[in-house]
Structure formats: structure tokens, C-alpha cells
Design goal:
This protein is mainly β. The protein contains three helices and 19 strands.
């Protein structure tokens, strides 16, 4: 069995074990604790760390271990610690950073890049992201406003950062229909790195752009959740793109510029399975139609302060919104 097939089989086995473990696990103490807390917008999470939610007030922290397969760069590992602080059921903040124990990047040595186009790097970090969130629950639509800022801790020459401070502001609307829901968001900023951060990509950009997402969520058995989103990333000014690996069919260059250099569109599918109040198995598949790149990942998230299941929180959230409506 090849190394790639072995890793794929291992990841699928982890998912199967996680589903079985979740079916047998209960933690009534944590459910009672969580029920006493305020609920926020359905599905609000620290980017890249699905288990770190804003459902518990105060400080929380977690870490995600994941393996990613990219059709341009192959397999690599990712380690993503995150912290969050929830002020109230309306306002929260978080910070996260990606650490790459090993990853393939473009070979910058002209003497060997022909025979060895990719070389391995070890222990590199990406940019650090700080998010500020405000969520609200009117009668028909749940809405969330997010402001994201990046600190240039990543190496832009390796495509792991923008090389400067960047920002993004987005607005998301969510409408629940029982076990399913529709969502859409719109935003803009000056970097592609602050958009769709669930997906680990091979490039980061600097330049003004707008972005759109629309899709649906479905609650599945075992308190799992599936989410599918179509997205469009639209540059509105001159762009500089820093790449770790060239796109398929593109020349081997790591810095490009132009009016449409960072344009992208595609579909992102995400599946999350809460194994216990502290552990969440999750995976995603992203298809970049514009760039022709497929990215898939499976990860395991651990959080210090766990919560009850999503379904129980949906009932709590509904009761809170009804109480808010009665007090108006």
C-alpha cells in the first residue's frame, strides 16, 4: 500500500471510530453546565477550529490536528491552536494561527527546480488571525457581523502569509427551517487570506476584493452537521498574490500581480461530528473551479471547555429568542 493510500485509509478509519464513539458517549454534567449558558448564532465557530464555540461565556481554547491533501502540493500536516473570549451571547473575540510541521513548497533554487519542483519545509507558521464577532437573533433571521485582522507572522515568500497587516469585514444571515437552514454572507477587505479560512490554501493576496457565499446546512444523525457553500472571490483593484505552490498548468512562480490575480470561485463542503463535548471530528472538501485545485482535509479538534450537542443548543437558542420576543 502506498503512503498516500495508507494515510487515506487511516483518516477514514478515524472518522468511523469517531462516529461509533459519539453514539456511545454521554456527559450529562456538561449538558447541564452548557444549558445554563447563553446560545449564539447557529454554527458560529472560531475559523479552522470547529470545536471552539462562543456558546460558553468567558475564556476558551482549543487545538486542531489535521491532515490536508492538495492536488497541487500533495499531503501535509496542520496544527491550529486557537483561543476565544465570549463577552455575552452577542459579542465574542478569537485568535488562531496555523503551524505546519511539514509542507511542500515551490523550489526557489534554479539549479534544482527542474528535477525537484517542490521541496519540504518544517515548522513554519502562517499569519495570525484575530476575529471580533457580533451576533443577533431577530425573529426571522439570525445575523452575525465579523471583523477579521491578520498579523504578518507567516512567510510571504513561501506563500504562507500576506507580508503585512490585513483586514476583512463580513455580514452573515442565517435562516433555520427545522433540521436545515439557509445562509448567505457578503464582505470585503484587502486580502484573500481573511476569507474562507476553513480551507487551507496555497496562496495569500494583498489587494482590495469583495467576496460572497451562499449555501445550506443540515443537521444529521449523531448530532453531526453538514454544510455546503458556493463562493465567489472578486478583486476590485490591483492584486499581489504570494503562492507556496504554483497552480496546475501555471508557470513556476510564487509572486504574481494584476487586476484579477486573486480571483477565485468554487464550492466548499464541511462535515462536523461531535465525538464528545471536548472532541470534534471534522472534514472538508473544497473545489476551486477557477484555479482547478481540489483540497480535502480530515481533522480532530480538542477544546478545554466543551459544550453540549448542537441539537440541544438549538432548542435552548429557540427558547431564548422566544423570551426576547416576549420582552419587547
Amino acid at each position: 500500500m502506498s503512503d498516500a493510500n495508507f494515510r487515506l485509509a487511516w483518516l477514514l478509519a478515524c472518522l468511523s471510530i469517531g462516529v461509533c464513539a459519539r453514539a456511545q458517549s454521554t456527559d450529562k454534567t456538561m449538558q447541564v453546565q452548557a444549558a445554563a449558558q447563553s446560545a449564539t448564532q447557529a454554527g458560529e465557530e472560531v475559523p479552522n477550529v470547529p470545536g471552539v464555540t462562543a456558546l460558553l461565556r468567558g475564556f476558551n481554547a482549543g487545538v486542531t490536528f489535521s491532515q490536508v491533501h492538495d492536488s497541487s502540493a500533495g499531503w501535509y500536516n496542520l496544527f491550529t491552536p486557537a483561543v476565544s473570549y465570549t463577552i455575552s451571547h452577542h459579542f465574542s473575540a478569537d485568535a488562531s494561527v496555523a503551524i505546519y510541521p511539514d509542507r511542500l513548497i515551490q523550489n526557489h533554487n534554479p539549479a534544482t527546480d527542474t528535477v525537484q519542483p517542490l521541496v519540504a519545509t518544517h515548522g513554519e507558521v502562517g499569519d495570525t488571525f484575530i476575529g471580533l464577532h457580533g451576533s443577533f437573533n431577530p425573529r426571522l433571521l439570525q445575523s452575525a457581523t465579523t471583523a477579521t485582522f491578520s498579523v504578518p507572522t507567516g512567510n510571504s515568500s513561501d506563500g504562507l502569509g500576506a507580508g503585512r497587516f490585513t483586514f476583512d469585514v463580513s455580514e452573515r444571515a442565517y435562516r433555520s427551517f427545522g433540521r436545515a437552514g439557509l445562509l448567505a454572507d457578503f464582505g470585503g477587505g484587502n486580502s484573500s487570506g481573511t476569507f474562507n479560512r476553513v480551507v487551507t490554501r496555497n496562496e495569500d493576496s494583498v489587494g482590495r476584493l469583495l467576496h460572497f457565499q451562499a449555501g445550506f446546512t443540515v443537521d444529521l444523525p449523531l448530532n453531526s452537521r453538514f454544510q455546503s457553500l458556493a463562493y465567489e472571490q472578486l478583486p476590485i483593484g490591483n492584486q499581489t498574490v504570494y503562492s507556496s505552490v504554483s497552480a496546475p498548468g501555471a508557470p513556476p512562480q510564487t509572486v504574481t500581480s494584476g487586476m484579477a490575480a486573486s480571483e477565485d470561485n468554487g464550492v466548499t463542503n464541511i462535515l462536523s461530528i461531535p465525538v464528545t463535548p471536548h472532541f470534534t471530528l471534522w472534514s472538508y472538501y473544497n473545489r476551486s473551479v477557477h484555479l482547478g485545485i481540489d483540497t480535502a482535509s480530515v481533522g480532530l479538534t480538542y477544546v478545554i471547555r466543551g459544550t453540549a450537542t448542537k441539537r440541544q443548543f438549538s432548542m435552548i437558542d429557540r427558547a431564548l429568542r422566544e423570551a426576547e420576543g416576549a420582552n419587547r
